[in-house]
């Protein structure tokens, strides 16, 4: 079955998050066509889509590459992510509706199960769903969209830690702390945990650049 354009773009994005596609790696159209059983125009549109997401850069007469970042790029992106995500956490009004808190807990159960099973693609998907549901509690669609955009920019940066067992254990613990902060109506704990949650992937990428 031929994969549609959004599926191709999303699957390549997932591979970038998982570190299966490395920064500066060339994305060869023929290889992508064979991998995803897609026509050339579908692959080209997927690459255009990924370029618009900030995950891929295309060079005339050379091709498309997974985007790489300088140390300044990383610091700048994460400074903006911290501003957006901490502010969003502080905008969440208490008490949070019981059904929305329960939804977040169910998503985290999926994340926990995926981590325990070592199903990395499911871990990534559940993690994205958790943060989408968390920030949606602010009821500010524009802010949530901005957070998603900058989180996508960081996918290649996050790939350094996203498959690390230590990182996954820490992420699970921080997610549980976020849920507890929401239940206990503790804005400061929620905001500080959201801030701390960003640091491991940023710092790991910077260490890699330094080495």
Please give the structural blueprint.
Layout: H1 5-17, E1 26-27, H2 29-36, H3 40-52, E2 56-59, E3 63-66, H4 71-91, H5 98-117, H6 120-136, H7 141-153, H8 155-158, H9 165-183, H10 187-210
Helix pairs in contact: 1-3, 2-3, 4-7, 4-10, 5-6, 5-9, 9-10
Number of domains: 2
Q: What is the string of helix and strand elements?
A: HEHHEEHHHHHHH
What would the principal axes of the Cα set say about the shape? globular
> pLDDT under 50 segments (min length 5)?
1-6
Biggest sheet features: 3 strands, antiparallel
How many angstroms does the end-to-end distance come to?
43 Å
Radius of gyration: 18 Å
- Mean pLDDT comes to 92
For the record, the CATH class of the largest domain is Mainly Alpha
Question: Which architecture of the largest domain would the CATH scheme give at its second level?
Answer: Up-down Bundle
Descriptive terms for the model:
three-stranded antiparallel β-sheet, Arc Repressor Mutant, subunit A, 2 domains, globular, single chain, disordered N terminus, 3 strands, 211 residues, mainly alpha, 5% strand, 10 helices, Four Helix Bundle (Hemerythrin (Met), subunit A)
Detailed description of the structure:
By secondary structure, the chain is mainly alpha-helical. It folds into 2 domains: 62 residues, Orthogonal Bundle (Arc Repressor Mutant, subunit A), CATH 1.10.10.10; 140 residues, Up-down Bundle (Four Helix Bundle (Hemerythrin (Met), subunit A)). 72% of the residues lie in helices and 5% in strands. A 3-stranded antiparallel β-sheet has the order 1-3-2. It is globular.
